[in-house]
Design goal:
Number of strands: 13
Oligomer: single chain
Bound molecules: pyridoxal-5'-phosphate
Largest sheet: 6 strands, mixed
Shape: globular
Helix content: 40-55%
Strand content: 15-25%
Distance between the termini: 37 Å
Number of helices: 20
Length: 434
């Protein structure tokens, strides 16, 4: 299968190139030329299948042309030794808990899958130089990517994070691992980290000297596997007789997660409507209302993994719907919440239903509560991270002392190692070159 660039100026690539390069030469994002449908009978039969079996079916539809069938299955089974359960919160609202992986956030699925696919292509192509993954993080991505790629031969990972701006729990998930993971503490903001990564990708000298790639959701092997758990959630609700009129709500930042859901829908997954829930960074909502897309600098909020002012996957959404605002607005609605609303939602749901929301999931829950589901509809929001990942915020809002899961405590025991760098590109480049 060929992958074309959303900017349509670069030649089409095969999967191997798209995964190794991440971004097309013209700055566009790669899109598969065709999206293969999954038969209705196959989707209906998923209610009696395991998460791994479901994911394997979806993975073969996406990547089966370009990878050996058995190797792809092995990668799927190895990526998903954990569940993504659907939990009833109240009335017709369900939570898809995506935080049962190693770093307790949904990005674990895509990061682990991408690491294994990249390694498969490095081996198959006989690439004789190492691949360097650059990843800028505001907190969650760094841990998921570092853990997904830990110990994978032929790949080095550099995690760039803003000094003093990620929580201690998040920081230790990528600073204590060692091996092929290097944590770079940048004296600047998340935007500075992202700017350094972008500058590296377009620097001629650097790219002649080393093979660089990204593990952000611009990479097709990172965001597409996120379609797996939409099918799995549907299967669980179907089994409970609740999947008839499904409204799926996704707390969104770079819009990789919801784009994977839109791909699942295009493959035939019966979702009636999607909702993108945002914090105060609401450029997408503005686009839905006005038809104009105006990126702007991000503002800090409680739901910091969604503090994005120019969502990278917006280009994919436009492309998927032939640039039609009308078609996009017909399938997707938007909601936005302030920190005060996020906090009030977390308190209300905890008191009334004994369900602990993290600040991102709170936006998702609240949008379903506000959208006035019809009696026949079921609402499903993606709970994108375990609340303990945001312990300081959650404790303060709910006035509790949240227990840190054992998995997270393990990271905190490790020895923290990082390299401190300024935010100038020269220093960063010199570090990479040596
Ligand atoms: C990354 C992240 C998001 C946003 O996901 P996108 O794919 O960037 O839209 C939401 N919640 C949490 C906890 C995250 O880590």
């Amino acid at each position: 299968m060929k992958y074309y660039s959303t900017n349509r100026q670069s030649p089409a690539a095969n999967l191997e190139e798209a995964v190794i390069k991440s971004l097309a030469g013209d700055g566009g994002l790669y899109m598969p030329e065709r999206i293969r449908a999954v038969d209705r009978d196959v989707i209906a039969a998923m209610r009696d299948k395991s998460f791994q079996e479901i994911a394997d079916t979806v993975a073969q539809a996406f990547f089966g042309d370009d990878m050996d069938t058995q190797s792809l299955s092995d990668i799927v089974y190895d990526t998903l030794p954990f569940e993504t359960p659907v939990v009833h919160v109240n009335d017709r609202i369900y939570s898809l808990e995506l935080f049962h992986g190693p770093t307790l956030a949904f990005k674990d699925v895509g990061a682990r899958f991408m690491a294994r696919v990249l390694s498969y292509f490095i081996l198959r192509s006989g690439l004789d130089r190492e691949v360097n993954v650059l990843v800028a993080t505001s907190g969650d991505t760094g841990g998921a990517v570092a853990n997904g790629f830990l110990g994978v031969p032929g790949i080095n990972v550099f995690v760039l994070y803003p000094k003093g701006k990620v929580s201690p729990i998040q920081e230790c998930q990528f600073t204590t691992l060692g091996k092929n993971i290097t944590a770079l503490e940048i004296d600047g903001t998340f935007d500075d980290c992202q700017a350094l990564v972008k500058a590296a990708f377009v620097d001629g000298e650097l790219n002649r000297n080393m093979q660089l790639t990204s593990a952000n959701s611009i990479n097709v092997a990172r965001f597409l596997p996120q379609a797996f758990y939409y099918f799995n959630a549907f299967a669980q609700l179907d089994k409970a007789g609740k999947a008839g009129n499904l409204v799926v709500c996704v707390p969104s930042g770079n819009f990789g997660n919801i784009t994977a859901g839109l791909f699942a829908h295009r493959m035939g997954l019966p979702v009636k409507h999607f909702i993108a829930a945002n914090n105060r960074n609401d450029v997408f909502l503005e686009y839905l209302r006005t038809g104009r897309y105006r990126p702007r600098p991000s503002v800090e909020t409680y739901a910091n993994a969604m503090d994005v002012g120019n969502p990278s996957n917006f280009a994919r959404i436009l492309d998927l719907f032939g640039n039609s605002h009308e078609r996009i607005a017909a399938l997707i609605s938007g909601y936005r919440y302030t920190d005060e609303e996020i906090a009030a939602t977390m308190r209300d749901v905890y008191r009334a239903h004994r369900y602990l929301l993290d600040p991102h999931g709170a936006c998702g829950y609240r949008a379903l509560a506000d959208c006035r589901l019809e009696p026949a509809e079921t609402g499903l929001f993606l709970e994108t991270a375990h609340p303990a990942k945001f312990k300081e915020t959650v404790d303060r809002i709910l006035d509790i002392d949240l227990e840190i899961p054992a998995k997270l405590q393990e990271f905190m025991k490790g020895e923290k190692k990082n390299v401190a760098l300024g935010k100038d590109f020269g220093g960063f480049k010199a570090f990479l070159m040596k």
